[in-house]
Amino acid sequence: MAQDSTQPAPAAVPATAARTLLPTIVPALLVGVVTSLVLLGVSAAAEELQDVLWQTLPDAVGVGRYSVLWMFTVLVATGVAVGLVVWKVPGHAGPDPATTGLEAPVLPPAVLPGLLLATAFVLAGGPSLGPENPIIAVNVALALWLGTRAFPRAPQRGWVALAEAGTIGALFGTPVAAALVISEALAGQRVKGQLWDSLFAPLAAAGAGALTTTLVSEPSFDLHLPPFGRPGWSDLLASLVVAPAGALLGMCAVYAFPFVHRAFGRLRHPMLMLPAGGAVLGGLAALGGHLTLFKGLDEIAELARDPDGWSAGEFATMTVVKLAALLVATCSGFRGGRIFPAVFVGTALGLCAHALVPAVHPAVGVSAGVLGLLLAVTRQGWVSLFVAAVLVADTGILTLLCLATLPAWLLVTGRPHMQLRADGTAVR
């Protein structure tokens, strides 16, 4: 159809001048480095405490490191410790974790010490939560507080974007994850100028954060599963079944989220809620074993080293227990994020599918399971696809994952999120 010459052509979106973007590089790089150092510092402190709690102390008293008694004791003690922080430390370790997501609220500086302390206790003590949500909140608050003093005329939203991007880059060891998150966020906003102009400074922050983490700790998400090779029709069928199954399983937790949160909320006081949550987590650990403790990254690497080392029933038990532990930890007030535990759930689900049907390649099962779980838990399509792909590190899996995303997304879109409003109702 010929274009009507009487109609004016749509105006091109003006690009931002280079002289406007250049001054943002140095602040962005600084923010990226600092966000990574905060993450690495908290992680290092938590690892030292974890060694004391799970190695030094049980060896000293002659108790098995991961015996049922010791797991129950440490998890209840972690609930008591976090409860004391939430109760007594100024700022009460920030808002209710059930009401927060990757987009962090801007917290006053007085809240940050308590939030960092509670996060370190959680990472060391074994509750099934990761560092992402609280570390993003801490870095956003620091960047905004320091940035507005150093550059009073700079927009506050810019510092928030830099801190979020830098932290996500540091968490995943690559700026690609941050670029995907920001692109997804910008898709729902009216962006002035071209997309890459808006991504320029955050991408610099994410790159600096990722490089700092890589140079210091050499992170790797590749599970070194058996080589995948060229995808076939059976692989496509497996991915189209496992990813929606993961999404459905995740949505079960999403729908249970407000009810579990309300149940713990009836206890009202953090010194009741958190120790009770620790006791429930201790019981779950007794059912699922020590691999269902902690944020889950080291544990999925152990599962992946021997995909045939557990039965389908054992994988299924770990899947359900870890998802329940994620639900209880968040709803009872432990500070932490939900992405990394969800990766463990998806990995265990995918390996369960492989154990049930050996024709399901472990790489296909794991990546599809993680994709479905993350879509339900985070509602972040690009991040879910990215994390599922990097676990396998094989380009042949990408086509399968892109196709598997479609039915899984239809199951989660328009439904409640795994996040609550202040009044306890689910975010949609």
From TrEMBL:
The UniProt entry, under Gene3D superfamilies, shows: Clc chloride channel (1.10.3080.10)
Q: Which UniProt keywords apply?
A: Membrane, Transmembrane, Transmembrane helix
Question: Which Pfam families does the protein's record reference?
Answer: Voltage_CLC
Main localization, broad class:
membrane
Cited CDD domains: Voltage_gated_ClC
Q: Which InterPro entries match?
A: Cl-channel_core, ClC, ClC-type_chloride_channel
Task: Tell me which domain of life the UniProt entry assigns to the organism this sequence originates from.
Answer: Bacteria
TM ranges are 25-46, 67-86, 106-123, 135-152, 158-183, 195-216, 236-260, 272-293, 313-332, 339-361, 381-412
Query: Is Magnesium tagged as a keyword?
Result: no
Q: How does it sit in the membrane?
A: Multi-pass membrane protein
Subcellular locations according to the entry: Membrane
State the protein's name: Ion channel protein
Q: Which organism is it from?
A: Streptomyces tendae
